[in-house]
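Consider the tokenized backbone below.
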């Protein structure tokens, strides 16, 4: 049990869980790229809202079916909507999730500090 665990799991719901950090990382990356596009086109960025949803699935347990919603502060035409979409697709977190990385694990014993 960790303090970040929800109360129903015996925790204190203090801080984000690892899955929440992953989803928020995708959202902050998407928001960064959306804002970059809007700034480049001299469009308003204040009030931009990004929401990310994901489902917890099994076999193996993981997050899947991610959905990113970007709400821009003003009506944009189709060209700029497509521009925001293209920029968000350049997000490094988005690209990482679209192209699963190689992950290695190395378990090492702690070394004693020299005195």
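A designed sequence for it:
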């Amino acid at each position: 049990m960790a303090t970040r665990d929800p109360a129903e799991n015996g925790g204190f719901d203090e801080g984000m869980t690892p899955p929440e950090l992953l989803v928020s990382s995708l959202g902050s990356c998407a928001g960064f790229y959306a804002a970059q596009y809007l700034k480049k086109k001299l469009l308003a960025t204040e009030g931009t809202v990004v929401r990310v949803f994901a489902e917890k699935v099994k076999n193996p347990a993981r997050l899947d079916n991610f959905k990113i919603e970007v709400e821009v502060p003003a009506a944009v035409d189709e060209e700029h909507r497509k521009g925001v979409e293209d920029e968000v697709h350049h997000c490094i977190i988005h690209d990482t999730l679209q192209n699963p990385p190689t992950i290695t694990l190395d378990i090492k014993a702690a070394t004693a500090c020299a005195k």
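Residues 40 and 100 are 30 Å apart (CA to CA).
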